[in-house]
Amino acid sequence: MPESRTRIVVLGGGVGGLAAARHLDRLLGRRPGVEVTLVSRDNFFLLSPLLFEACSGILELRHCAQPIRPCLRRARFIEGTVEHVDVARRTIRIGVAEGEPRELEFDHVLVALGAGTNMSIIPGSDHARTFKTVADALLLRNHLIERLERADVESDPVRRAKLLTVVVIGGGLVGVELLGELSAFMRDEMRYYPGIQARELAFHLFEAGERLIPEAKPFLAAYATRILRYRGAHLHPSTPVVAIEPGRVRWKEGMVDAGTIVLAPGIVPSPVASAIEVERDRKGRIVTDAVLRSVSHPHVWAIGDCAATPAPNGGVYPALAQHAVRAARVAARNIAAAIDGRASAPFVYEPLGTMAAFGHTRAAAEVRGLELTGFVAWWMRRTYYLFQMPRWDTRLRIAVDWTVSLLSKPDLTKIDLAPEREQERRSYAAGGSAGPTAR
Question: Do 180 and 172 contact (CB within 8 A), yes or no?
Answer without folding.
Answer: no
